[in-house]
Amino acid sequence: EFLNFMQQNKKPFDLLMSYYECAIMEVETKFRVLNHELSLEYDNNPIESIKTRVKSYDSILKKIRRKNIPLNLRAIEDNLKDIAGVRVICSFPDDIYKLAESFLKQDDITLIERKDYIKNPKPSGYRSLHLIVQVPIFLQNEKKMVNVEVQFRTIAMDFWASLDHKMRYKKELSDEEVEILQEELYDCARQSAVLDERMQGIRDRITKKQEQETILLEDKNSK
Ligand code: 0O2
């Protein structure tokens, strides 16, 4: 049925996918700009890396089936809000919130949904801050609002999620093995959350010290 739909709607479907590509470019640029500005201000890059993807046909099809979404472009656009995905990887949890706040303050960004799996991790142990936003893209004759999912993770959260993802897609594992690995992964998630907090604590102490010395130096120079 999906194949049939794709054959009949190939052009409009590809056009819709190209809008998601454009929206990804817009959002990625916004984060590059923020990273550039913050790196000058604080002498430190808050963003480690940015990964982007448009959801594959396969994943789109699976989600349509799972959620019983009617097979037409309008329904896909309205119901699948994560076709365009941008993943922002930071070193420290605080930088995630700082970046998310600056991003959401921009007047062309509309927040549709926010899920904070850092404050409230998933039962699997998964941690990340998810935002669904709408961003305008400017085409030849129109302005189009496009949904983008932004996932913010620390390096540790991303490392964990990649391993968890690997396990989920390994068909060779028995149910029993999966259960054991899930418990082990859950434990790792808790430990990595503690690690994130400790590293953040160290970073905060270093910056505080730097700030105190700058104030001392300014005081000395003004006398
Ligand atoms: P992919 O390959 O990243 O596209 P839904 O999106 O409707 O299925 P919900 O609750 O709206 O479900 O979305 P949720 O759980 O907020 O976010 C879904 C995405 O978060 C997933 O995308 C994963 O990228 C990530 N995610 C959520 N939970 C886990 C987890 O336990 N482990 C890992 N590794 N990732 C997780 P997709 O569409 O599943 O996959």
TrEMBL record:
The keyword Transferase applies. Keywords: Kinase, Transferase. SMART domains: RelA_SpoT (SM00954). CDD domains: NT_Rel-Spo_like. Pfam families: RelA_SpoT (PF04607). GO terms for molecular function: kinase activity. Signal peptide: none annotated. GO terms for biological process: guanosine tetraphosphate biosynthetic process. Residues 52-175 form the RelA/SpoT domain. Pathway: Purine metabolism; ppGpp biosynthesis; ppGpp from GTP: step 1/2. The keyword Nucleotide-binding does not apply. PANTHER family: GTP PYROPHOSPHOKINASE YJBM, GTP PYROPHOSPHOKINASE YWAC. This is GTP pyrophosphokinase. It comes from Anaerostipes hadrus.
